[in-house]
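Hey,

Quick one before I head out. I ran the complex with zinc ion overnight. Inputs first:
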Amino acid sequence: MKIERIEHIGIAVSNLEEAISFYEKVLNLTCYAIEEVTDQKVKTAFFKVGETKIELLESTDPEGPIGKFIEKKGEGIHHIAFAVDDIDLALKETESKGVRLIDQIPRKGAEGLKIGFLHPKNTLGVLTEFCSNK
Ligand code: ZN
């Protein structure tokens, strides 16, 4: 497995409109896509920062993963996503090194990417995502 770059940083927000406004008006970034990922019960907004993106995540359901995260920890950095050359291989290799996976099999994420999460208990408290367009 080869990690190519930080694909995005996921940030949990309680109000997507207000968060977009902060990133656009204060940080002068441009939101280029808003997408709902029903699987994960989130609405996402994307900003490009060089090769890396910021992914804002607002929960569409208090029982969804982002809803629960905000209830427990408040708004803030939720996960870091690495672009990998081959996601199936990356997940298998990571599991073979003793790391628990949230996703045994990649699922469909925003922007048509294949994504898979590692368990934060095994990744020093940082929820880690792999993603790939293959
Ligand atoms: Zn993500």
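The mean pLDDT is 95.

Talk tomorrow,
K.
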